[in-house]
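INFO  loader      accepted 1 record
INFO  loader      residues=368
INFO  predictor   begin
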Amino acid sequence: MKNKKNLILIVISIVLVVIALILVLTRQSGTMSKKEKSFAVEDTTAIKKIFLADSDGNTVLLQRDEQKGWTVNQNYEVMPNNIEDLLNCIANLTVKSPIAKTARENINKRMATGSVKVEIFYDDYHIKIGRLHVWKYTHKKVYYIGQQTMDNLGNYALLEGAKYPCVVYLPGFRGFVRPKYSPLEDAWRTHNIVKLKMSKIKRVDITDFEHADQSFSIVKGSGRHFDIYATQTGEKLPAYDTLKLLDHLSDYRNLNYEMQEMELSEQEKDSILTNNKFKEISITDVDGNSTTITMFRINTILNTEEYDYNMAFVDAFNRDKFYAIVNGNKNELFLCQFFVFDRIVQPLSYYIPGNEARAIPSLRQIKN
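INFO  predictor   done
INFO  writer      dumping tokens
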């Protein structure tokens, strides 16, 4: 009889231990399941591509290439800082709190039209025991990043397959993460136009459409020596300011535009491309590859309805910025800063020894 009672106690104990284990293993935090909280992909080295899309039709595909590194839409190099910020966010994205039941319907409606869909493709393994990883496959994690919360310290987000949205944030970051998931191509592509060491430059041809006598070519000679030829006469300068020329050539190491112009109408764009061209620079490397930058002035726009101007002191064109197209592609108009291009838009006379004249653009034009 005693043995029977002991057996019953043992069985009851085993059942209680099993129930306790089940409760521990399936325990939920608050009202959210583990699946609803699994936004992060901790091993970002395993990520192969990231697809971002919004309800306005903007899409971006970021891919990791073994030789090229990260590319955007299979065409352009990605800005390193931007992809690093995104990967850090993907690795550490954390649930801050669930959404109150009374607000779920409203948040769901807002996310249906105002969120960014995020698809992350990465290598994973069906069997992972310690360091033993077996049966590799490509896993896809999908979630939606919505608008920021009222305190601007988080975003509403929904993991695909979860019932309800939640609030997510990036630990250690004071702000909201939505901008890190931009579906706009220009937010990712490098702004670099030319990235060429001086030793790789074969020649530079500079055409000045406003002052033909200031057009010239820089041609690589032996070693690190370059010659300058006046385009109009074909004559080589007998001497030039070496430091000024070296400054010019060194700027091609990392020449960037500020942003892509997206706000102009087709009519405004056509007017600029037709009437405002002032300079063109073509850079050819030792392998025969060329990049041509065509530059266009930006007209000064005056608010004459509210202000009176002394036209003798008004610039006809913007003194700080200009537009450019690269390799004749009129579909992409870039906004550039003269500050960045200052040393490569100089006239031929600038390189003549003893000449103290500063750069074109000489933008001040007196209007009658």
